[in-house]
């Protein structure tokens, strides 16, 4: 659940960009067990966790969804909002009561277009999150489904 330093929002964004982004966030809360989004649905918002946890999961044919990673304080929930066609690549649900900041994706994309420096900073942060999540998904799926004794990563 502890994000590497570069994926945690306060460490990833310079103060001025962080403050600018936070000005358009709104505080939301969800009880445990709420689905925030489903894989394949339209990605029109994202969240930064204040308190609580969110489990990211991926559909696995013939099995129940596999939890890839649990996210907590200051972590970004959702990245698909930044890249066309704006469709979620994973699913997400609260695994404990959640308090978060919610952001309208279209508004943040407009901010990125209007201010290229802000846009580069947001894109770099989200790219680091995507890279981290890809590695987490790979590791988790190998843990769950690789044949026993198949060896480590090559």
TrEMBL record:
SUPFAM superfamilies: cAMP-binding domain-like. InterPro entries: cNMP-bd_dom, cNMP-bd_dom_sf, RmlC-like_jellyroll. This is Cyclic nucleotide-binding domain-containing protein. The lineage of its organism: Bacteria, Bacillati, Actinomycetota, Actinomycetes, Kitasatosporales. It comes from Streptomyces aquilus. It comes from the Bacteria. Residues 9-78 form the Cyclic nucleotide-binding domain.
